[in-house]
Design goal:
14% helix; alpha+beta; 15 strands; five-stranded mixed sheet; eight-stranded mixed sheet
């Protein structure tokens, strides 16, 4: 009679030990939980966003006068922007390798265009295109506002052509101002299909009060 209760007590003790071990193992295999009560997970990696660089001005070198065209300003309409006819705010076209003097003291020129494939940033459309180096030289006696007014547009094809989309994330930002006696080259990226590069029109505008320098030629 004394043996039976002892066997029962021993069996219950072994069962309790087995249950405790099972619970411990289950607990160790569960995901770790932070103090806030949420399970920890690997951190998600984010894609790198292109960084737009600001072009840096340098001292302007002397430029030969025979390389600089002074276009006829008689076709410029001072009220072109207000009237909505931007074509009358453009100086006559010059070849891509010429420089244009506007307002007597500011010279605008284009560097050698380079064919490139541009990756798209958020909200952009990338693809095969052309990098257009735009150089502005300030030969006036005062600072020239730049970042807030500088506009570069590109059309490809004959006549008015087709507007090219700029890839902002692959383009340089212009400095806020360009001091007297300084020059700066700002690279601008545009998506232009290879078949449309035989005739490219580039318009560089320095805002209200300035006529726009206009260039045309083959972009490679």
């Amino acid at each position: 009679m004394l043996i039976l209760p002892a066997v029962l007590v021993l069996g219950l003790g072994l069962a309790a030990c087995g249950g405790g071990k099972s619970n411990s193992a289950a607990s160790s295999s569960a995901p770790s939980v932070s103090a806030s009560g949420s399970a920890s997970a690997p951190a998600a990696s984010s894609a790198a966003t292109p960084t737009v660089q600001t072009a840096q001005p340098t001292e302007a070198p002397p430029s030969p006068s025979d390389d600089v065209a002074t276009p006829d300003a008689s076709s410029i309409d001072p009220n072109a922007v207000e009237n909505g006819d931007l074509s009358k705010d453009e100086y006559p076209e010059v070849p891509l390798d010429k420089s244009v003097r506007i307002d007597g003291d500011v010279v605008i020129s284009l560097g050698q265009m380079q064919a490139q494939d541009f990756a798209s940033g958020p909200g952009e459309v990338g693809g095969a295109g052309v990098l257009v180096p735009v150089t502005v030289t300030n030969n006036s006696g005062q600072d020239l506002a730049l970042a807030s007014v500088l506009s570069t547009t590109v059309n490809y094809g004959e006549g008015g052509g087709t507007p090219a989309s700029e890839v902002i994330s692959a383009s340089d930002a212009a400095p806020a101002t360009l001091a007297a006696g300084q020059t700066v080259t700002i690279n601008r990226a545009f998506v232009i299909p290879a078949e449309g590069r035989g005739s490219v029109k580039v318009v560089v505008d320095l805002g209200a009060g300035h006529g726009a320098a206009t260039f045309r030629g083959a972009a490679g």
